[in-house]
Amino acid sequence: MAKTTKKANAWQIISAVFQALAALFGSLKKSHDSAKAESESEGTSRNSSAKE
Question: Is the Cα dihedral 7, 10, 14, 16 positive or negative?
Answer without folding.
Answer: positive
